[in-house]
């Protein structure tokens, strides 16, 4: 959804040979990605609010009313997901400021530039994330 928009605006970062991981150029690249994503999400939320205010129609037909309420509920659920993503973006920007960005929360290894470009709010390396998902599957059964 919103993260699909990332690849339309940014060219992938190509590290130079011997370049230090999470140097100032890389951090600036990810800060720009996160900032743009946050702006797009906030604009979507704003558009939704205005659209819902403009389309506040009371239908006499119960089926039309039910359809409208279903549409509104779906839209609100999507906006709630986007609101949560904005919160994660803000937390991630804080990690950039504190110098923790790009390193796994569990094991401390580098998450990797390609993984971060695919999911800029990632806090776990691919191995730790895979283990976490396996545990979630086992608990869900």
Automatic annotation (TrEMBL):
SUPFAM superfamilies: DnaK suppressor protein DksA, alpha-hairpin domain, Glucocorticoid receptor-like (DNA-binding domain). It comes from the Bacteria. GO terms for cellular component: cytoplasm. One of its GO terms (molecular function) is zinc ion binding. Residues 26-96 form the DnaK suppressor protein DksA N-terminal domain. It is found in: Cytoplasm. Interacts directly with the RNA polymerase. Zn(2+) binds at residues 104, 107, 125, 128. This is RNA polymerase-binding transcription factor DksA. GO terms for biological process: regulation of gene expression. Belongs to the DksA family. InterPro entries: DksA_N (IPR048489), DksA_RNA_pol-bd (IPR012784), DnaK_N (IPR037187), Znf_C4-type_bac (IPR020460), Znf_DskA_TraR (IPR000962), Znf_DskA_TraR_CS (IPR020458). A zinc finger (dksA C4-type) spans 104-128. Keywords: Coiled coil, Cytoplasm, Metal-binding, Zinc, Zinc-finger. Transcription factor that acts by binding directly to the RNA polymerase (RNAP). Required for negative regulation of rRNA expression and positive regulation of several amino acid biosynthesis promoters. Residues 99-133 form the Zinc finger DksA/TraR C4-type domain. Pfam families: DksA_N, zf-dskA_traR. The lineage of its organism: Bacteria, Pseudomonadati, Pseudomonadota, Betaproteobacteria, Rhodocyclales. The gene is dksA. Transmembrane segments: none annotated.
